[in-house]
């Protein structure tokens, strides 16, 4: 191999394996959309409508967060915390302007499944009734929120892995009947799980 060919091959190899500054910037813009739209944000036109939308979303999330916290079998105050951070995170990583982020009924039920299995209601009589130093909650309530936090953290790790691997495009493979069936099943599950509260009945948790 001649010297010119070696030099050309070396240049191609270094170009393939050495990321340029522009490539890094483009990668960050694709992964962090806020870097793309924030510099072009028009304060005069968008600040007032966005403020009104934020207030409306906050009012909605207060009641919805409290309800979904009960649905998750944890103390209602944690529903407020769960409603705050998704909106902030989505503002950084989200790409859609018309998406309302926050707590979700189906994920709340999935979290409640783990909470009720690991920390069932009958354990409340076995734990101490003294309040802990965190928000004045009992040991039983703190055990439940620990389980819910662990489930949420694991779900977040899986979602971050899917984000890094760009697996969102796999949703195009899912057909419309499958999505409709999942939505209908989730809605039915949410409604039927709340019948006992509507009728004032005490029933054991069945997943």
Describe the structure.
It is a single chain. The chain has 207 residues and is an all-alpha fold. It folds into 2 domains: 7-40, no CATH class; 41-199, no CATH class. It has helices at residues 3-17, 21-31, 34-37, 43-71, 77-93, 105-118, 139-164, 176-193, 195-199. The longest helix has 29 residues, at 43-71. The protein starts with a helix and ends in an 8-residue tail after the last helix. Residues 48-202 form the SLC26A/SulP transporter domain.
Helix and strand arrangement:
Layout: H1 3-17, H2 21-31, H3 34-37, H4 43-71, H5 77-93, H6 105-118, H7 139-164, H8 176-193, H9 195-199
Helix pairs in contact: 4-5, 6-7
Labels describing this entry:
single chain; 207 residues; mainly alpha; 0% strand; membrane; SLC26A/SulP_dom; transmembrane; SLC26A7 isoform 2; SLC26A/SulP_fam
In short:
Keywords: Membrane, Transmembrane, Transmembrane helix. The protein is 67% helix and 0% strand.
Give the SSE string. Answer: HHHHHHHHH
- Counted up, domains total 2
Helical amount:
55-70%
The low-pLDDT segments are none
Number of strands: 0
Largest sheet: none
